[in-house]
Specification:
CATH architecture: Alpha-Beta Barrel
Helix content: 25-40%
Order of helices and strands: HEEEHEHEEEHEHEHHEHEHHEH
Bound molecules: ligand PBG
CATH superfamily: Aldolase class I
Number of strands: 12
CATH class: Alpha Beta
Structural class: alpha/beta
Number of helices: 11
Shape: globular
Oligomer: single chain
Length: 333
């Protein structure tokens, strides 16, 4: 946006006039964070009565379904529109092809059904990717050290259908395989799931900021076969993000994600200003860990940096934010 009215020289124009009082600052405020902007990612595991804090993510727990439900009820009461489910798969169920992903009795499907039943008013987002289910920790099938695309997409399509049948509202493919949005969209249409939403991780970068997340789902120690650079994006690129997002929109995505969040605000701004499509920022585990680590040292005020970091996403143009802070923020708002 360009300003057509140029402000006058000092002292005709004193920008501090509008800033003097709180009421005035509120009047000219351009962006507001609301509870409607929040998506809460949660970790779910097998068993009963389990509630384990993730060491690198203070205040974030991996819970069994029975312990998770009351937390989701609280989130719904606070007005959080949607949660995103991430499973920890028992080690003995992990395979090279991640076939547990398409087991309709897996932990995410069971959690989805239980949450739909107990808290029908909250939206459920499920991740599409194989990394919680593969023995090597890659998001797809590995053949000769390479994550193969089309064979992986075939399994992802099955995973999408299994999750939709379990009651998932929004599928969120985070795998970065080529063509998966179109393949999933057509499979949904063919199976009469015309209203299942897809929120595509369209611009997902090969980032070191995902470290704590991999602890939480128990996939970090397994990622031996190199990183994820052969499918996730190069942090050096921005034009490529626009192309990735355009492709996912053309293939049938309803919303898109830029990930990570704060180090990639420029991408969010470019995507939202150039493509004007519902765009979500993912404030990832490493960003959450950083803010907490500094706060624990007494170096930063946690509540303040939390709110400021989330407002920054709104300013950049995001429609909403995936954040582990969601319940804390909703309570403060
Ligand atoms: C899995 C997935 C990852 C995250 C969300 N989905 C990890 C990865 O790609 O290695 C990261 C979330 C976070 O760090 O908070 N495909």
């Amino acid at each position: 946006m360009t300003n057509t009215i140029i402000s006058g020289p000092h002292p005709l124009s004193r920008p501090r006039r509008n800033r003097k009082n709180d009421w005035s600052r509120r009047m000219v405020r351009e962006n507001i964070l609301s509870t409607d902007d929040l998506i809460w990612p949660v970790f779910v595991q097998d068993g009963e009565n389990q509630e384990i804090e993730i060491p690198s993510m203070p205040g974030v727990f991996r819970r069994s379904i029975d312990k998770l439900i009351p937390e989701i009820e609280k989130a719904a009461k606070l007005g959080i529109p949607a949660i995103a489910l991430f499973p920890q798969t028992p080690q003995n169920l992990k395979t090279n092809d991640g076939r547990e992903a398409i087991n309709s009795g897996n932990i995410v499907c069971r959690a989805t059904k239980a949450i739909k039943n107990a808290v029908p008013e909250i939206g459920i987002i499920c991740d599409i990717a194989l990394d919680p289910y593969t023995s090597h920790g890659q998001d797809g099938i590995v053949v000769d050290g390479y994550v193969v695309n089309d064979q992986t997409v075939e399994i992802l399509v099955k995973q999408a259908l299994v999750l939709t049948e379990a009651g998932c509202d929004i599928l969120a493919p985070s795998d970065m395989m080529d063509g998966r949005i179109g393949a999933i969209r057509m499979a949904l249409e063919d199976n009469n799931f015309h209203n299942t939403q897809i929120m595509a991780y369209a611009a997902k970068y090969a980032s070191a900021f995902y470290g704590p997340f991999r602890d939480a789902v128990g996939s970090s120690s397994n990622i031996k076969s190199g990183g994820k650079q052969s499918y996730q994006m190069d942090p050096a690129n921005t034009d490529e993000a626009i192309r990735e997002v355009m492709m996912d929109i053309q293939q049938g995505a309803d919303m898109i994600i830029v990930k990570p969040g704060m180090p990639y605000l420029d991408i969010i701004q470019r995507v939202t200003s150039e493509l004007a499509f519902p765009t979500y920022a993912y404030q990832v585990s490493g960003e959450y860990a950083m803010l907490h680590a500094a706060a624990q040292n007494g170096w930063l005020d946690l509540d303040k940096v939390m709110m400021e970091s989330l407002l920054a996403f709104k300013r950049a143009g995001a429609s909403g934010i995936w954040t582990y802070f969601a319940p804390k923020v909703a309570a403060l708002l």
